[in-house]
């Protein structure tokens, strides 16, 4: 269970700065909405450049925001100077990703020093209640001493 105390301001800033460096998230149009201990929310406005041949958001875009939500949730549990990389993930596409926007909610299931298990749910949002359209589980590994990983 994630700690209910607020994240330290430097951890929140570190995650926001890291997210801002992800050119692919910028290309998709994704935005980091909320950062809490063990939890992250990423918003993706739906637009035509994200769709596949049937007009739904492409599974690659859905998987990308889900992976980032799970990975950043894992990063909230790491000390300064430690980053994370996804070692593996599995995604279930439960319903077509269609709506005005998608919301990926990442959550840590079990944090460890080396490996962290996280998950993400992706919801399609239109006028009615959010519809669960994808679920991802990920194993994230802690990394240190590598280029791009800093305090």
Automatic annotation (TrEMBL):
Signal peptide residues are none
Q: Where is the Thioesterase domain?
A: 54-127
Q: Which Pfam families match?
A: 4HBT
Q: Which controlled-vocabulary keywords does the entry list? A: Hydrolase
**InterPro entries listed in its UniProt record:** ACOT13, HotDog_dom_sf, PAAI_dom, Thioestr_dom
GO MF annotation list:
fatty acyl-CoA hydrolase activity
Taxonomically, the superkingdom here is Bacteria
PANTHER family the UniProt entry points to? ACYL-COENZYME A THIOESTERASE 13, THIOESTERASE SUPERFAMILY MEMBER-RELATED
Report the sequence similarity comment from the record.
Answer: Belongs to the thioesterase PaaI family.
Q: What is this protein called?
A: Uncharacterized protein (TIGR00369 family)
Give the source species. Answer: Bosea psychrotolerans
């Amino acid at each position: 269970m994630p700690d209910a105390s607020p994240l330290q301001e430097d951890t929140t800033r570190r995650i926001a700065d890291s997210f801002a460096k992800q050119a692919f998230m910028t290309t998709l149009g994704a935005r980091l909405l909320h950062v809490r201990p063990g939890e992250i929310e990423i918003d993706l406005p739906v637009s035509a450049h994200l769709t596949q041949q049937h007009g739904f958001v492409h599974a690659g875009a859905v998987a990308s925001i889900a992976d980032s939500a799970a990975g950043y949730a894992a990063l909230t549990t790491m000390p300064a100077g430690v980053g994370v990389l996804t070692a593996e993930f599995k995604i279930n596409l439960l319903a077509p990703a269609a709506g005005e926007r998608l919301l990926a909610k990442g959550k840590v299931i079990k944090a460890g020093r080396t490996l962290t298990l996280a998950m993400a749910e992706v919801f399609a949002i239109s006028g009615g209640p959010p519809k669960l359209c994808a679920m991802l589980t990920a194993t994230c590994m802690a990394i240190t001493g590598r280029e791009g990983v800093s305090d």
